[in-house]
Amino acid sequence: xxxxxxxxxxxxxxxxxxxxxxxxxxxxxxxxxxxxxxxxxxxxxxxxxxxxxxxxxxxxxxxxxxxxxxxxxxxxxxxxxxxxxxxxxxxxxxxxxxxxxxxxxxxxxxxxxxxxxxxxxxxxxxxxxxxxxxxxxxxxxxxxxxxxxxxxxxxxxxxxxxxxxxxxxxxxxxxxxxxxxxxxxxxxxxxxxxxxxxxxxxxxxxxxxxxxxxxxxxxxxxxxxxxxxxxxxxxxxxxxxxxxxxxxxxxxxxxxxxxxxxxxxxxxxxxxxxxxxxxxxxxxxxxxxxxxxxxxxxxxxxxxxxxxxxxxxxxxxxxxxxxxxxxxxxxxxxxxxxxxxxxxxxxxxxxxxxxxxxxxxxxxxxxxxxxxxxxxxxxxxxxxxxxxxxxxxxxxxxxxxxxxxxxxxxxxxxxxxxxxxxxxxxxxxxxxxxxxxxxxxxxxxxxxxxxxxxxxxxxxxxxxxxxxxxxxxxxxxxxxxxxxxxxxxxxxxxxxxxxxxxxxxxxxxxxxxxxxxxxxxxxxxxxxxxxxxxxxxxxxxxxxxxxxxxxxxxxxxxxxxxxxxxxxxxxxxxxxxxxxxxx
Length: 583
Prior knowledge:
Layout: H1 11-33, H2 38-51, H3 67-79, H4 83-102, H5 112-127, H6 137-140, H7 142-161, H8 167-187, H9 192-206, H10 209-236, H11 240-256, H12 258-261, H13 264-273, H14 280-305, H15 310-331, H16 341-360, H17 366-382, H18 388-391, H19 394-399, H20 404-410, H21 418-430, E1 438-440, H22 448-452, H23 463-469, H24 474-483, E2 488-492, H25 500-504, E3 532-536, E4 539-543, H26 560-582
Parallel strand pairs: 1-2
Antiparallel strand pairs: 2-4, 3-4
């Protein structure tokens, strides 16, 4: 057994507690009033459709497994449709993950002070992220995944400490762990990579093949049990054939589109948004490899001297979890911000555990201390809540619920112009629309459906995204709009290709509802040829007239200059062909 650090609160622990309390008091009101990401609202719309008797995948298209929709179906009837309430739930989920992460290195001589500083770093990181990363699948599944990791640690402890442990006990504990991994898998299947890394690592640390095989059967049984329950739900609700069609016919295109998103410019933008936190991976990766090397040495020592090292096992499991998670997020997923917070949270835990252990051994050199001070300075300089304009909103966030004006001021990623969108909502509310009579062409407009209490015109909530990612299915998309009873279409000029200056330019005359570069000469193109009846900033409301027209290009809107150039080339080509015929 190792000597655990003092459990009493030291002066350093009290200081860290005050810092943590200050961080929470400062950031939580600002966090709760921030807007929800478009993906989160889409899951709300999908969940509401199913709760109202619709069929997932048939009535609402979804490229992912249904776990996140199930979660929204469970939560929303309890808390209502408030964005503030859902953010409170997000904070509860994240606090659960913080607790499991901060306590992980307890057996590695990590003091209470060290755990508090890890918690401070974890909260500071999450509060510095844009709304695109909040209540997203990748961060949500960290909670059941960490629960499974704790169970894996307990299973290893039991197997190494008790040579006479019962078969049923081994299998039952693994079964429960399998349920947790499967819960995460139903929400996002990429968790299988870190799960596999952790289990293979535990086999290596255990060195008992028969027990490892028994353990594996329990894990797989738990996973298969929950997998069968999910499939039964899909079958019972009639979603199964549509689920299979989506994953076999639509998803290959969506997955293949991942490569096109990993460009140097987008990667640079990603690093900018995650600065300075992404720098932690440069430290955490070599530290994780060192932990695995030390774990190998400890295992060999245990074999020769029959001395167990729980702390070394814990470090190895955490290192495998981190490296596996980082690998799958970089190798298999799209370059979307919300994919990457869990790897950074694990990196913080890896570094925090290592530094805490070094500090308790009085082995923290000036190099580490200087690096920590520099990183702390970078965090303070870039931390959103420390910006004066944002800090001044604290009292407002504490006393009132979020509205369009407050969301506009708090948003860290400007995907939506909230006050202009509110004007669109007010105009559409006056039209007394019914379900399926409104079509939001761009994914950034998904907020209008729940705010107006309407079901989308088609089953494609993110219509433009599907149009871009699934080009082979454009015929299905066009048939969907033809069959829908839509009366109004809303478009977002910036999301459709205009730059902000062009999209927000004032109309040339009071009678026009469009900016000067809007393609008024374009005919027969959906939705751009539909008449514009209302404009608010970058957003246009079109009244639907049949025929609807065809999709053009990549689904983006051309400028009037582009249309005129095209028409000129077409005219010249026609003239040349006419001259050749005359000759």
